[in-house]
């Protein structure tokens, strides 16, 4: 596996940061904001599902925690948006530690881990949907107040820049994983947990750290989502769509790679938008395309688009030499 | 507050609904026992079967119970084809691959149904949909009594198939020792596909039993599948008696929590059982230690 250099990441982030000012239409800006939010959620998923090999089917638990933290703290307690963002992310790490503590102590892996994360997200959805504190089934509206202190902008480009900033943090965290001892531990326990344990890796502690980081990143995506749309309800925040999109983006792009989740989110959402346009709004067509892409990518490119591109790139010169 | 008669009636009706849950879980646990993987497409396939039953009744005027005779072979064929030509080849035999391919399939199926049928809910009304059976002082829903009886019969039939037929013996052999089974000449891909097919046929029976008293929409299966996962985990993944007893138990729990907590919070009881079982005894009540 080749690891991208920090300079490569800097160039990618710089290129992304230029896009908002390239004269995009409002609809395209909105699409890019959503792409960045999904990319961030997928980067969070990737820490746990990609590097540590613990496929969660319930990352909506984190996304929803972020969205509700943002909405509840601002509307009920009058907390400043930026502070709510920080508290939300910390809460995400805690939720991760909670789910992780229970699941890893029981040694859950594979399907069992996928199922229990799904169940946690569903419990959260049912509670948020029926509790007055979280607005019940009606959801919560965040007051429209533009300006930097409120983390709301009348010019959509600034919010896009902020989401790109968070994606950049996600890239750096993933880059650090690929270069640190901690990241090596994660990959070791993904490949062979017993061997990793035999070599003296504290498997439980490593998993706990991974789920806390993973939770924090995906929670940040939920916070940004709430602040962007200024409305959330239980089915949006804790619904299975976000668990699925985070997982799809990471796997289609390349799970366990730095750039995979970002590329996956861009490719998936572009295709989804294209499908919506072509199918003239037949419901479900875009998600159907996602499903087909997931099946095809597991079948033909199990390591994701990143690896597919790399292997194509590496094969071309060697063929040239043979000729 | 609640008269004993209402409570007993609710619990008995829950028990009988639980039998249909058990039937759904039966296919799931069988597939888990052989392929060692959770089939995430199970709920979506249940929805497909329910739409087939609905079509048979709405278009061709068939009785839903009679429709089972046509839908079960169709689902059997569909299940066989899915495993043989899509899930097997696409997953390269890797556990994580199967998990993701079945998840992808469930999303494809659910949204294809959404595109074809929109999100409307559809029902079938038969003259016995609301009929009740009197059992002494107790009133029981007729469709649920039928569901209970047919589930018990189907479970016995499945048990016989697994223990008395060649394919049943092959399925059990592959479940126990895949490599050994293939060494004595059993075709593992064929057995996998047959297992999947039988699981889907069970769904067809469940769909026929559900339709007279239930509705179908593209998302219906999603609601059932989480219940089915709970049953399979509770009963012990791969255990057929576990699925039956787990299903009956969950039906009773759901009836009790709906009666005392209301419908919206009632479901939470199931998830809590699910989480606690996974944490405390992931092998379930009847599962062998992994």
TrEMBL record, chain A:
<keyword id="KW-1003">Cell membrane</keyword>
<feature type="transmembrane region" description="Helical">
    <location>
        <begin position="81"/>
        <end position="104"/>
    </location>
</feature>
<feature type="transmembrane region" description="Helical">
    <location>
        <begin position="210"/>
        <end position="232"/>
    </location>
</feature>
<feature type="transmembrane region" description="Helical">
    <location>
        <begin position="111"/>
        <end position="127"/>
    </location>
</feature>
<dbReference type="InterPro" id="IPR001851">
    <property type="entry name" value="ABC_transp_permease"/>
</dbReference>
<feature type="transmembrane region" description="Helical">
    <location>
        <begin position="27"/>
        <end position="45"/>
    </location>
</feature>
<keyword id="KW-0812">Transmembrane</keyword>
<keyword id="KW-0472">Membrane</keyword>
<feature type="transmembrane region" description="Helical">
    <location>
        <begin position="158"/>
        <end position="177"/>
    </location>
</feature>
<dbReference type="GO" id="GO:0005886">
    <property type="term" value="C:plasma membrane"/>
</dbReference>
<feature type="transmembrane region" description="Helical">
    <location>
        <begin position="244"/>
        <end position="267"/>
    </location>
</feature>
<keyword id="KW-1133">Transmembrane helix</keyword>
<protein>
    <submittedName>
        <fullName>Putative branched-chain amino acid ABC transporter</fullName>
    </submittedName>
</protein>
<dbReference type="Pfam" id="PF02653">
    <property type="entry name" value="BPD_transp_2"/>
</dbReference>
<dbReference type="InterPro" id="IPR043428">
    <property type="entry name" value="LivM-like"/>
</dbReference>
<feature type="transmembrane region" description="Helical">
    <location>
        <begin position="57"/>
        <end position="75"/>
    </location>
</feature>
<dbReference type="GO" id="GO:0015658">
    <property type="term" value="F:branched-chain amino acid transmembrane transporter activity"/>
</dbReference>
<feature type="transmembrane region" description="Helical">
    <location>
        <begin position="287"/>
        <end position="309"/>
    </location>
</feature>
From TrEMBL, chain B:
<feature type="transmembrane region" description="Helical">
    <location>
        <begin position="191"/>
        <end position="211"/>
    </location>
</feature>
<feature type="transmembrane region" description="Helical">
    <location>
        <begin position="40"/>
        <end position="58"/>
    </location>
</feature>
<keyword id="KW-1133">Transmembrane helix</keyword>
<feature type="transmembrane region" description="Helical">
    <location>
        <begin position="12"/>
        <end position="34"/>
    </location>
</feature>
<dbReference type="GO" id="GO:0005886">
    <property type="term" value="C:plasma membrane"/>
</dbReference>
<dbReference type="Pfam" id="PF02653">
    <property type="entry name" value="BPD_transp_2"/>
</dbReference>
<comment type="similarity">
    <text>Belongs to the binding-protein-dependent transport system permease family. LivHM subfamily.</text>
</comment>
<keyword id="KW-1003">Cell membrane</keyword>
<dbReference type="GO" id="GO:0006865">
    <property type="term" value="P:amino acid transport"/>
</dbReference>
<keyword id="KW-0813">Transport</keyword>
<feature type="transmembrane region" description="Helical">
    <location>
        <begin position="259"/>
        <end position="280"/>
    </location>
</feature>
<keyword id="KW-0029">Amino-acid transport</keyword>
<feature type="transmembrane region" description="Helical">
    <location>
        <begin position="223"/>
        <end position="253"/>
    </location>
</feature>
<feature type="transmembrane region" description="Helical">
    <location>
        <begin position="138"/>
        <end position="162"/>
    </location>
</feature>
<dbReference type="GO" id="GO:0022857">
    <property type="term" value="F:transmembrane transporter activity"/>
</dbReference>
<keyword id="KW-0812">Transmembrane</keyword>
<protein>
    <submittedName>
        <fullName>Putative branched-chain amino acid ABC transporter</fullName>
    </submittedName>
</protein>
<dbReference type="InterPro" id="IPR001851">
    <property type="entry name" value="ABC_transp_permease"/>
</dbReference>
<feature type="transmembrane region" description="Helical">
    <location>
        <begin position="65"/>
        <end position="86"/>
    </location>
</feature>
<feature type="transmembrane region" description="Helical">
    <location>
        <begin position="98"/>
        <end position="117"/>
    </location>
</feature>
<keyword id="KW-0472">Membrane</keyword>
<dbReference type="InterPro" id="IPR052157">
    <property type="entry name" value="BCAA_transport_permease"/>
</dbReference>
């Amino acid at each position: 596996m080749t690891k991208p250099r920090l300079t490569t990441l800097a160039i990618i982030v710089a290129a992304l940061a230029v896009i908002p000012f390239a004269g995009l239409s409002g609809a395209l800006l909105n699409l890019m904001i959503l792409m960045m939010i999904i990319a961030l959620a997928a980067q969070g998923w990737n820490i746990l599902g990609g590097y540590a090999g613990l496929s969660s089917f319930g990352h909506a638990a984190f996304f929803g925690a972020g969205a509700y933290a943002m909405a509840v703290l601002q509307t009920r307690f009058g907390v400043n948006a930026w502070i709510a963002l920080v508290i939300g992310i910390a809460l995400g790490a805690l939720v991760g530690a909670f789910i992780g503590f229970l699941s890893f102590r029981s040694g859950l892996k594979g399907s069992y881990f996928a199922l229990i994360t799904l169940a946690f997200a569903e419990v959260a959805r049912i509670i948020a949907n029926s509790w007055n504190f979280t607005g019940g089934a009606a959801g919560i509206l965040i007051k429209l107040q533009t300006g930097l202190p409120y983390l709301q902008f009348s010019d959509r480009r600034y919010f896009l820049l902020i989401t790109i900033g968070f994606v950049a943090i996600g890239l750096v965290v993933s880059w650090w994983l690929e270069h640190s001892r901690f990241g090596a531990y994660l990959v070791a326990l993904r490949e062979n947990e017993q061997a990793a344990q035999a070599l003296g890796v504290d498997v439980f502690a490593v998993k706990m750290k991974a789920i806390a980081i993973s939770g924090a990143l995906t929670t940040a995506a939920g916070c940004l989502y709430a602040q962007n749309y200024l409305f959330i309800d239980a089915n949006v925040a804790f619904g299975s769509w976000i668990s699925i999109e985070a997982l799809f983006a990471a796997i289609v792009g390349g799970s366990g790679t730095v750039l995979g989740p970002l590329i996956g989110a861009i490719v998936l959402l572009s295709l989804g938008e294209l499908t919506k346009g072509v199918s003239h709004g037949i419901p479900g067509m875009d998600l159907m395309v996602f499903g087909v892409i997931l099946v095809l990518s597991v079948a033909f490119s199990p390591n994701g688009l990143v690896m597919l591109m790399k292997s194509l790139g590496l094969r071309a010169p060697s063929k040239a030499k043979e000729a | 507050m609640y008269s004993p008669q209402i409570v007993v009636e609710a619990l008995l009706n829950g028990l009988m609904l639980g039998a249909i849950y058990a039937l759904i879980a039966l296919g799931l646990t069988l597939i888990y026992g052989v392929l060692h993987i959770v089939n995430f497409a199970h709920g979506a396939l249940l929805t497909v079967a329910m739409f087939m039953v609905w079509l048979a009744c709405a278009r061709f005027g068939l009785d839903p119970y009679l429709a089972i005779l046509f839908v079960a072979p169709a689902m059997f064929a569909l299940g066989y084809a899915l495993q043989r030509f899509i899930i097997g080849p696409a997953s390269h035999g890797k556990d994580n691959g199967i998990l993701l391919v079945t998840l992808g399939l469930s999303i494809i199926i659910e949204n294809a149904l959404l595109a074809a049928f929109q999100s409307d809910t559809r029902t079938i009304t038969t003259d016995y949909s609301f009929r009740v059976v009197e059992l002494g002082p107790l009133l029981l829903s007729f469709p649920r009594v039928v569901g209970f009886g047919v589930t018990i019969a189907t479970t016995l039939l499945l048990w016989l198939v697994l223990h008395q037929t060649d394919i049943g013996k092959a399925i059990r052999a592959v479940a126990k020792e895949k490599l050994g089974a293939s060494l004595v000449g059993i075709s593992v891909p064929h057995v996998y596909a047959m297992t999947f097919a039988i699981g889907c046929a069970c769904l067809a029976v469940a769909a026929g039993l559900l339709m007279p008293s239930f509705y179908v929409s593209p998302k219906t299966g999603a609601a059932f599948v989480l219940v089915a996962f709970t049953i399979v985990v509770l009963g012990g993944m791969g255990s057929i008696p576990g699925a039956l007893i787990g299903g009956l138990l969950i039906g009773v729990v759901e009836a009790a929590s709906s009666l005392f907590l209301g419908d919206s919070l009632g479901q939470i009881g199931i998830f809590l059982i699910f989480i606690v079982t996974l944490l405390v005894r992931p092998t379930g009540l009847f599962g062998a230690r992994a």
